[in-house]
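Standup notes
- DV: blocked on the single-chain target, sequence here:
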Amino acid sequence: MTQPNHVVRERCSWCGTIEDYCHYHDNEWGFPVDDDRRLFEKICLEGFQSGLSWLTILRKREAFRKAFANFDVNKVARFNERDVERLLGDAGIVRHRGKIEAAINNAQRALELLETEPSLAAYFWRFEPKPATRPKKITPDALATMTTSPESIALSKDLKKRGWKFVGPTTMYALMQAMGLVNDHVEGCSTRAEALRARKAFEVPR
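- DV (later): unblocked, structure below
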């Protein structure tokens, strides 16, 4: 009996064959996001990832959601020292006092930002690079060197001025990749076209 042919999905090399990476790559990375809760989650998790592998964060994401009230900005902004101690005792997350306190601080700064901005999404999408400034082709070698951009530097500088923490240019570029401000799926990756279509259909929040 002839076995059916199985189509091999071409992906960016960074996700390899690791199931958690592949699912994240195929369904989230590079796709545009305009939901403030999801954006705040991404900001926090990118900060916790600093110095660690993203795989570690992905595998702890559900624990992070439970520990941080599903990343509800209003709830996290009200966390106090008792919550910090609770989180430091939670083995399901990354127990780093500086990063935990930064997430709480950033929730408070996010509420301040929302006093003058219609949404977090509207603020972050203002830093989307112009198409003309982006490489014409994203190759694996090029992607390996793309850790910051003029826009991620500008975003980092503005957030730091507003009092946010763990928002360096490299972390902000990773956020831009994650939320679809840039599409860094390499040429030949089957998800690249899917992310492009999603961006064309996406209405940038104003």
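- Follow-up: The two ends are 57 Å apart (CA to CA).
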